[in-house]
Amino acid sequence: MTSGQRRLSAVATAALVVSLAAACGGNAKPGSSDSTSSAAASSDSQAGGQLSGEIKVDGSSTVAPLTQAATELFGEEQPQVKIPVGTSGTGGGFERFCAGETDISNASRPIKDEEKAACEAKGIKFTELTVATDALTVVVSKENDWATCLTTDQLKKMWEPAAEGKVKTWKDVDPKFPAEELKLYGPGTDSGTFDYFTDEINGEEGASRKDYSPSENDNDIVTGVSGTKGGLGYFGFTYFEENADKLKAVEVDSGSGCVAPSVETAQGGTYTPLARPLFIYPSATAAKRPEVAAFLDYYAGNINAIAKDAKFIPLNAEQEAKLKADITALKSQS
Amino acid sequence: MAILSTPRSTVQLASKGRPLKEHLFRIALLASLAIAIVFLTMLVVYVVEEGWPRLDARLWENQPSIRRPENAGIQSGIFGTLWIIGLTALMALPTGILAAIYLEEYADKTKWYNRLIELNISNLAAVPSIVYGILGLGMIARWMQFGFTVMTGAMTISLLVLPIVIISAREAIRAVPASIREGSLALGATQWQTIYRQVLPASIPGIATGSILALSRAIGEAAPFLMLGAATLVRFNPEGVWSNFSVLPLQIYNFITRPQEEFAVLAAAAIVILLAILLLMNSVAIWLRNRYQKRW
């Protein structure tokens, strides 16, 4: 083989790989496309008139799937309205929102005072809307047979900054526990989940021991905890629900008995202090635009269907009524 | 992937003299090559196996969906990536090639400013891509008010690949023997005619290969787009340069962090598509080089 032929065969191999990938596409069922079904659904609902435009959304990656589910459902009625959803994180989202670059900001914690000030400086008015509930879930390995319920004090003992380098085994947390090594997994410091957990458990937002395994990807926490007998981690309830076969959720006792994280306890407000509200922040200026107003109406009007679809914990009746009242107030304000 | 064709006979002749050392050296060379090939093969086999159930038309016919992960596609990502790369090629290639022609054919290398430019280009080629993201965010998206559009993304990526295009184009132009230029000038051609009719055609294979490899690198970039705050969940394709967009690497990153198992499979399938686009571009580069290569 000359070098020319060898090179030719390299090209042929590459082309083969590409065409193989293309050929795999042949198995598609024509009816499986969800874009066609949404187009069909939209033609039935012409009554309200077709809106168009773009609604820019950014913010928490925890809330993004909920807003994304809302855009998918809304898109079946208003296919001309484009809604790109970013996942820059709660803090990054507010930064862009208060610079006037986005119309709606997703947030897994309330807006901070300095973020409010940034918005005010730019003259951006907004409303805080609670759209769903999340139960921050503390998980341990399936092999862990000693920790079924932890008090908030025990959690603090594990996670507070003073625990760094000192609390190394479960026995250090409570003498009744075995001397199994305590391996901690948690979200990175940029996440709203981290902010909320440290605030509620350690008493100060952002205060945490640093010698744990942080990850921006909650699936890494699932893998880490499920593979370590003495592992413990925390994240949003959906990640536990999807991995309930690999992990055990710990009940949390904040002084009035052990409560397991669930849809009911989070909705009813008994899963304290780790049940948290999730928010969207629409800007008042954007809400004047017909497509944004229609989207917010749709979001609030179908909130529990959307939440169920996106596997979030829906609002209770009282919160749902408040959401609808808030939207009405936002629109009359503008 | 440069194919260096060392004349085989030279190696064989030398190995007769010092067999052991030569053999050890050859084994070391082959082992180094094997590491690269083995990892690439493992990666390809792993993602194809993992993504196999989703490697069908649903991928490019459907838009991403949170509600129906089993039917979700990556159409907006494929189109977004193609838009960004196409526009980047339109902006970065002419600029980069013209800059290379200036530096090789016109610039007086004894002048301090030409040396400064050269030094800066080499430095820029080594700047991490996230820094270009910050530049794009501050300058193009905010200061120039281009917002978060295909144009902003493509301009940022153009800046990222420009130094690589310039460096590879300069190498290609430098490889054209001086005798070609001298012959052309001696026959009465002007400098521009010499460049346009002799130097450029002779260096096209090298320029094309370098440019395509630079663009291939840009395809896999996620960091600058993360910095630009490009949306990850987009259910429409870009309709023009002022449209909002998402790209494949961002979508893959987003799928991997979702809790549902279906998204992990979808991410693997999306990686296969990304690799297929990459391999397609690289094979075009190899083909172009073989088709037009000249030897002197």
Q: How would you explain this protein's 3D organization?
A:
The complex is a heterodimer of chains A (334) and B (296). Chain A has 334 residues and is an alpha/beta fold. Chain A folds into two domains: 3-133 and 278-331, D-Maltodextrin-Binding Protein, domain 2 (3-Layer(aba) Sandwich); 137-273, Periplasmic binding protein-like II (D-Maltodextrin-Binding Protein, domain 2, 3-Layer(aba) Sandwich). Chain A is 45% helix and 16% strand. Chain A contains 15 helices and 14 strands. Chain A has helices at residues 3-23, 34-44, 64-77, 89-98, 113-121, 152-159, 170-173, 192-202, 218-226, 237-242, 263-268, 284-287, 290-301, 303-309, 317-333, and strands at residues 53-54, 57-59, 81-82, 104-107, 129-135, 137-141, 149-151, 183-187, 213-215, 231-235, 247-249, 251-253, 258-259, 275-282. In chain A, the strands form four sheets. Chain A has a five-stranded mixed beta sheet. Chain A has a four-stranded mixed beta sheet with strand order 2-4-14-5. In chain A, a hairpin with a 4-residue loop joins strand 12 (251-253) and strand 13 (258-259). In chain A, helix 3 crosses helix 14, helix 4 packs parallel to helix 5 (113-121) and helix 13 (290-301) packs antiparallel against helix 15 (317-333). The radius of gyration of chain A is 24 Å and the shape is elongated. Chain B has 296 residues and is an all-alpha fold. Chain B has one domain: MetI-like (MetI-like fold, Orthogonal Bundle). In chain B, helix 6 (129-143) packs across helix 7. The longest helix of chain B is centred in the first third of the chain and has 33 residues, at 19-51. The radius of gyration of chain B is 23 Å and the shape is globular. The two termini of chain B are 22 Å apart. Classes of the chains: A alpha/beta (334), B mainly alpha (296). Chains A and B meet through helix 1, helix 3, helix 9 and helix 10 of A and helix 3 and helix 12 of B.
